[in-house]
Amino acid sequence: MSGDVAPVLELDEVSAAYGPYRALFEVSFSVESGGAVALLGPNGAGKSTVARVASGLVPVTSGRVRVDGRDMTGEPAWRIARAGLAHVPEGRGVFDSISVEENLVLSFRRRAGRRMVPASLERAYASFPVLGERRHDRAGTLSGGQQRLLSLAKVLVVPPKLLIADELSLGLAPSVIDDVYAGLAEVRRSGTALVVVEQQVDRALALASSAVVLERGSVAYCGPASGARSVVERVLERRSRTHDAGKDAGPADRTTPAKAVSPRRA
Ligand SMILES: Nc1ncnc2c1ncn2[C@@H]1O[C@H](COP(=O)(O)OP(=O)(O)OP(=O)(O)O)[C@@H](O)[C@H]1O
Ligand SMILES: [Mg+2]
Known about the structure:
Layout: E1 9-18, E2 21-31, E3 36-40, H1 47-54, E4 60-67, E5 70-71, H2 77-82, E6 85-88, H3 100-112, H4 117-127, H5 129-133, H6 144-156, E7 162-166, H7 174-189, E8 193-197, H8 201-207, E9 210-215, E10 218-224, H9 228-244
Bound molecules: adenosine-5'-triphosphate and magnesium ion.
């Protein structure tokens, strides 16, 4: 803890569900101002659900979500974004039919104002040179990796208090992953706290100071990044054992009609 400064994000015994399917079970962790947390775990563990709950895209069924010390439980996504939380979701999140530069300009105008657009473009192209090279091309013609960079560049220019990046490296060539992680390190230097959701455990742990490991919707580890690797290995091993035995990957009863809610869209 860093004295009396409130964490930039705090999940306090958060549970969440998709309809009758329970995806998170009393998940608690916090992200200190300027800190970097790796959010790890196997497929289906609940990493993206944590990201969606934090950014208001999926409602909690119990527990509290606080952003910068303010209780934001149940608040709409736009209000959580205004409070300083940016979320780059899984997938691409760019407008296909307009150019790279038009994508950036739209986002920068909205987030920083018209006067900031030229300087913002310059920063984006300095961080991600490939976007500068392709600035006049339609975003839909970029590779998947380049589209991921574009969706990252859109949020980086007005530094948020917290950036939640969900599987940025998925499907990217190693050299592009290097660019993405260099971009993340730069954002962090500018004071933005990070939650990095990753399958690439080493990359995430190298960047993060602490780690949260999820297993079947519950926290299996929450502590220094250095202690997370062995837990991740154990969780993966347990998971492959239950798979080999043909068992369901979830807890015995993950359905609870009494608490059914629908996922909320932004
Ligand atoms: N929209 C949805 N509707 C119903 N169930 C969902 C939905 N999204 C996720 N789930 C389920 O909730 C659980 C957690 O999913 P989540 O996407 O959070 O996992 P994850 O850790 O991000 O996995 P991955 O590594 O595959 O991205 C999984 O069992 C998943 O099948
Ligand atoms: Mg996911």
